[in-house]
């Protein structure tokens, strides 16, 4: 086994450990929000949310595994030698810079998911949850995940970092995705939210109102929303989307092929264009 193989094996083992810790965090947050929820949802809504979201996680991961989607990162790594950070030695400076660049890249991707209708048709699946709980962090359309993997592979090439480092950062961000979707109260949250995304900051992002959920796009660092003026501090009246919902995985998958505009036309809420 050569040095590259050793590095790859070490990176894989580290990522498996990180992922295990992330799942443990998910279970702990699930327990906390079950017994001390910030907001009480009806048992029916909460149960449908939990079952649909975990089913989406399991099926999406089966599909991604069959497609060997994660192997795209290793392909991308073959071209990362020309990236921005490729000249830096592996160490704390490169890791911190890579994390900051990655967090910003995901912020940009998140904004794009709201601004471009062809991306929103997939991303809106995440927003269709009528509940707000830690399992909402699993609620994604598989096509959304596939597109995001391609985007992250471009990040590997442009930034010039090891694919296993990107996967490690991604798993760390998974901790924060679980955290800011958790239906919990966080002590001193008004202070913590000045630096990182917390549940109170992310709840507006799941508001039914478009003017409210087009905000707070950050995943970890609160800096990007402040810098680009997309931060909103408010308590949403309602969670989810007003015209569309999904009570199971099949409906969840199908949402990508149903647009709000078509629904409004069918309901006669907006006039049809002249022929």
Major pleated sheet: none
Structural class: mainly alpha
How many distinct helices?
13
Given the C-alpha coordinates, what overall shape results?
globular
* Helix coverage percent: 55-70%
Roughly what is the average pLDDT, rounded to an integer?
87
Report strand %.
Answer: under 5%
- Could you give the distance between the termini? 68 Å
**Oligomer designation:** single chain
SSE order in H/E notation?
Answer: HHHHHHHHHHHHH
What ranges have pLDDT less than 50 throughout 5 or more consecutive residues?
1-7
Cα gyration radius (Å): 19 Å
Number of DSSP strand runs:
0
What are the key terms here?
275 residues, 13 helices
How is this structure best described in words?
It contains 13 helices and no strands. By secondary structure, the protein is mostly helical. The protein has a domain at 84-275. Helix 4 packs across helix 5.
